[in-house]
Design goal:
264 residues; alpha/beta; 5-stranded parallel sheet; 4-stranded antiparallel sheet; 44% helix; 20% strand; elongated; disordered C terminus
Length: 264
């Protein structure tokens, strides 16, 4: 699961990210509301941890706008961080799922995050499914026709990002963001390595799906049959044509001449 941390205090944000990461959560830290809005528009977050004010942006107004636009049930939970008791009450009344103090114990913060994420939401999809492939968001188990697929955590993240788009192309940069986060450091070819391993695992499990590389763009989940057909069309034909005598190398020409004299 991916979380967004939107706190005005950088040290507080780092402490929260460290506690959540230790507990198995991936979190992106933002300190600018415009950057956060852009990330929310192009990526899926399960929970947002934010202070009331980030710059001049008021989190209470933001919560009310979400509620007015019927976006509060989109599957992203919100925990408001504020030391003001009235602000905490106001946040809950405006649509926040929980509200905590800034000096909260890291263990309690993680426990509250887990508790909020356990709550049912009408539009939360607990299971990603496409053809014979399923991924449970809670257990992180991936199955092909019911059989468990042994994947590493990052590989599961790659597959989840592709499953959410169900056959649509995911850009390389978008996939890297979903898997590694907005500001993480990673090896340039690590994504290709993980995609290659997932392909092998899908093939070994006899899945009808595979990951297709869309050159210069990104990746997508497609049926193995469709991917094979496109590969055949794209593959150039190399018809073998016997070289003319003039095109033969000197050594070949000498051997041909020698054979002709012997037969004579």
């Amino acid at each position: 699961m991916r979380l967004m941390i939107l706190l005005k205090n950088a040290a507080m944000a780092r402490d929260a990210e460290r506690a959540l990461h230790t507990s198995g959560f991936m979190a992106d830290i933002f300190d600018d509301m415009d950057d956060a809005r852009e990330a929310l528009a192009s990526n899926e977050y399960d929970l947002i941890l934010r202070t009331r004010y980030v710059g001049s942006a008021d989190g209470i107004d933001w919560l009310r706008q979400r509620a007015a636009q019927a976006c509060h049930n989109e599957g992203t939970f919100v925990i408001m961080v504020t030391d003001n008791e009235d602000d905490r009450i106001l946040a809950l009344e405006s649509g926040a799922d929980d509200s905590v103090c800034s000096n909260i114990n890291p263990r309690e913060l993680v426990a509250r995050v887990r508790a909020v994420l356990r709550r049912p939401r009408g539009t939360i999809i607990d299971l990603h499914q496409y053809e014979d492939l399923t991924l449970c968001k809670q257990s992180r188990e991936v199955r092909v026709s019911g059989a468990l697929l042994p994947l590493q955590r990052r590989e599961t993240d790659v597959l989840e990002a592709l499953l959410r788009r169900q056959g649509r192309v995911v850009s390389r940069s978008g996939l890297e963001h979903d898997v590694y986060g907005a500001h993480a450091a990673y090896c340039p070819n690590s994504l290709e390595v993980r995609v290659s391993r997932i392909r092998r695992q899908l093939m070994n499990a006899d899945s009808s799906l595979t990951i297709e590389t869309v050159r210069g763009v990104g990746y997508r989940l497609v049926s193995r049959e469709a991917a094979g057909a496109r590969a055949c069309v794209a593959r150039p034909r190399h018809d073998r044509v016997a070289p003319s005598a003039s095109a033969r190398t000197p050594a070949v020409a000498k051997r041909a001449t020698a054979r002709a004299l012997c037969s004579a």
